[in-house]
Specification:
Rossmann fold, 7 helices, single chain, 34% helix
């Protein structure tokens, strides 16, 4: 499903290049549950953004569903993202001037899903995440935990082939966090590919393998027993 070949990310500065990722080689098969770990500044979120086609590598090749993404027109990359990828952001990235209901509906509009079906899917997600009472509120009227739940619901509403999750339980209490991880496990067993970035050893244990980044390099990789 995913193949990274010598993916490198750097920024040009007055002092030269500042590297964020260096020569990342990675294969992820459909149906895997993979965790990316490492200290702050290791390049974890940058790698996730490149996988989600929200950022581009400076060098190397990224193949997603047998397509070399760097060679695709921007519109085609956006289509690939909207149709296949659900992204759970660490900072939520909800649209401030849309209600919870409208935030959930937005990904379905990108997929051109008909109105009646959209309404049904939104209602299902509101119920699943116990946020029906919040549907007419705006993001700034929600707590951090509530915004996180909306962000997870928005990522899952399109029934994506791939879920990319950046600290998906970071702002949730332990019970909510466990519920989200159990939901990810269930989706993974049903065939959804999941890649999560986390500092939590407990969350990492839900995955099948863990990739450790250090200073932009792949430092080590281990399979979870």
């Amino acid at each position: 499903m995913i193949k990274l070949q010598d993916i490198t990310k750097f920024y040009e500065t007055g002092a030269g290049r500042t590297y964020v990722l260096r020569n990342i080689n990675l294969d992820i098969e459909k149906g895997e549950f993979v965790t990316i770990m490492g200290p702050s500044g290791a390049g974890k979120s940058t790698l996730l953004y490149i996988l989600g086609m929200l950022d581009s590598a400076s060098e190397g090749e990224y193949h997603f569903l047998d397509q070399e993404t760097q060679k695709l027109p921007e519109r085609r990359r956006a289509e690939l993202h909207h149709k296949n990828i659900g992204f759970v952001f660490q900072q939520y990235h909800l649209i401030d001037d849309l209600t919870v209901l409208e935030n959930l509906e937005t990904p379905l509009l990108y997929k051109k899903i008909k109105k009646d079906e959209r309404k049904g899917k939104v209602a299902e997600m509101l119920d699943k995440f116990s946020i029906v009472a919040k549907k007419d509120l705006f993001p700034n009227q929600l707590s951090g935990g509530q915004q996180q739940l909306v962000g997870v619901a928005r990522a899952l509403i399109i029934e994506p082939n791939l879920i990319l999750a950046d600290e998906p339980t970071g702002n949730l209490n332990s019970a909510q966090g466990e519920e989200i991880m159990e939901l990810f496990t269930k989706l993974n067993k049903e065939g959804t590919t999941i890649i999560q970035v986390t500092h939590s050893e407990k969350n990492a244990s839900y995955g099948q393998r863990t990739i450790h980044l250090l200073d932009g390099w792949v430092d080590s990789e281990e399979k979870n027993v």
